[in-house]
Amino acid sequence: MNRNQQSRQVRLDQLGAYPFERLKVLFAGHHTNPDITSIDAGAGEPRLPLPPFVADTLAQHLGGFSKYPSTVGGLPLRQAIASWLERRFALQHVDPLTQVLSANGTREALFAIAHALINPEAVRKPNVLMPNPMYQIYLGAAYTAGGDPVFLPCTAETGFAPDLDAVPEDAWSNTALVYVCSPSNPTGWIADSAYFEQLLTLADKHDFYIVSDECYSEIYWQERPVGLLEVAESSGREGFSRCLVMNSLSKRSALPGMRSGLIAGDASLIARFAKMRSYTGPATPLPLQAVAAAAWSDETHVAQHLDVYRASLKAFFDVYGTDEAGIPPGSFFVWLPVVDEEAFAVAAYEQQSVIVLPGSYLSADDADGVNPGAGYIRAALVDGPEKAAELARRLKAVRI
Ligand SMILES: Cc1ncc(COP(=O)(O)O)c(C=O)c1O
To answer: Which domains does the chain have, with CATH numbers?
Structure first.
């Protein structure tokens, strides 16, 4: 085993258990209240009916299972993705051949991209910046790709924005890649145009790439979120340089089991990633590509889903009140302050048969040992308004 393999193995060993594994350990030996049915608000899994076109489209394309799909995705799917990006973000042109790839869910793509874009052997620029708390894949990706994660705390004081002004100059100059998540899991924060503009200016100044995870772009309380590509274009940038976005049918179309998403942006980064993917091979099966193309081409089901999420958020806060936590601008998560997040999660499980995730499981300790997710729990409003109101009632009744 050479030095590099060794260090990668050590890095994998040092990576903590995934949040849901930690939750299982936390709940071991505890039992839900046998008098009430369970509400699982732990996982961010949309639970809405299948969009109406799914079954027919799948049935029409079953023969595609007899063929190997390409890893980049077939042209009909990439064309549907490019057209959606153009419509949704008012972009002049997205080239389906050079600026778009299919992803088998964005999770794998968000992980793999760090391996394509940072070069541990050179150790020239090891820093990978990410929000904290964050979708844990960014951390695992940075770590296993040989990068050094740098955490941008997202706290009530920063309005839950990852604070770009708090990053020291020498950290910027060593930065290869910045992950941004808008709307954010878990806090619901949404980046505005000025935020993306600042990030783009920094990317040019310090020569790094931006990966914008926009999986929750279609789930918002009031204003429709802007995307990185549209800000890049409107600020006069050619060809989305330095930018990649990822988006997913898991949230927009409530199809998490289909494992389908998009990667789009800078053609040189797309080419580099496509080359890597031609070896690792995350190809989307052809029948699923057909369903995915249909899903990116239809907004009716997305609007219906948004109505449900908004009604759920309203139902939740009508009961819970907004004194302690404000209504999140985006995503279907609520990020609620509590005194002790692990004790609260256990008490909610035992007393109210409710599963929520301790915020500290979604965050990392910063250099000073402070975990910005401590003192919060995350609950997903994915079961419709009635259950959301019931969830709020039960969370309010938890005693620790
Ligand atoms: C912020 C964020 N990004 C990406 C994903 C991955 O979604 P998928 O792999 O289903 O596209 C999730 C899933 O929960 C998420 O919360």
So the answer is: 3-49+301-397 (3.90.1150.10), 53-298 (3.40.640.10)
Q: Is the CB of 250 under 6 A from ligand 1?
A: yes
323 Cα–ligand 1 center, Å: 29
pLDDT digits (tens, 9 = 90+) for 214-232: 999 999 999 999 999 999 9
How far, in Å, from the CA of 272 to the mean position of ligand 1? 22
pLDDT band at 264 (very low <50, low <70, confident <90, very high): very high
Q: How far is the CA of 1 from the centre of ligand 1 (A)?
A: 34
Q: Over 50: is that where the pLDDT of 36 sits?
A: yes
Per DSSP bridges, beta strands 376-380 and 127-132 are unpaired
What pLDDT shows up at residue 344?
Answer: 98
Residues β-bridged to residue 128: 149, 177
